[in-house]
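Protocol step 4 of 6: structure prediction from sequence.
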Amino acid sequence: MSTTTDSIRGHHSILEMLDRALSRSRLPHALLFSGVAGIGKKRVALHLAQCLFCQRTPPNELSCCHTCDSCKQMAAGTHPDLIAIECPPDKNILPLSLIIGDDDHRGREGVCYEMSLRPMVGDRRIAIIDDADKMNAESANALLKTLEEPSANYLMILIASDLDSILPTIRSRCQLIRFNELTQEDVASLLLNQQLVDTEEQAQQIARMSEGSLKTASELLDENLQSLRGNITGLLGRHPFQPQTFSDAVIQAIDDVGGNTGAQRKTAMWIIKFCADFYHQSLQCAAGYQTVPAAEHVERFVSGLPGEVEDRIETIGNLLGRMLQTEEQVHQNVTLPLCIESLSQDLRNIQTK
């Protein structure tokens, strides 16, 4: 997988910083890219690697030709001097075997061994360790020696979503680069450019709830989640609000994912996000702040609230506040059915004051 700066959104300041470091021959031997998942950290890492491998551009510039053999190998994901690992989808911990080899090949396979070899093309080797925050203490300690005794022109890039999970001994040997979340406009643009959505309206709708992460935006495209969102927001927009119907639907949706507690809480968080987004849209509609016309069901909900404009704004603000309170409760591992039932009654009370 190769990348271009056109596919990197929201991180131009980081690209400029890396470019300056290269121009001054001050690129560290180890970098730690930190930020929420799905914002482009790996894209930047791959772009940096391709620029360093490129055979037709100066080594002190963050640029690549896309046409030399090295660039073509990067595009095909076959460059022999790029060692890239990540946590397998079915595991929660980055396997030690990826760092130093399995039991039968300990010390003769894995990132540490690969980074001890001479480059096969050019004069450098680069390792990209995605999900570095999923290393356990044994894996981190095994990697430590390679970080402590770097070879010339060798670069290691660690990528982490949870910086607190990286051992201090690892962090102290890497230059930390923090990545910000993408803007809503960046996420919408990436969704359209990658043809993940068909329309600008859909892109904006998904981007609004993505929390600056293309990964979250991609998850939101799941048909089941889209259907759940439609059902839940449909119930929220009813006048009068029916708390029992709402709580039954939410609890059923949570039960439908099975007995896995983590999956149930994740579904609950999605539902809370859907509700909060609905009320946020309603608040903008009531206040006349929306940049595009509100959806029909949002306008219908707002117009059905009693009182003057100021009264409606206050009511919707209270509804939104109650959703944020519920989000905190779910994070605190409260019992989900009790949490949802209490929420449902409060949503009705707020609307009938």
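Step 5 (inspection) to follow. The longest strand covers residues 154-160.
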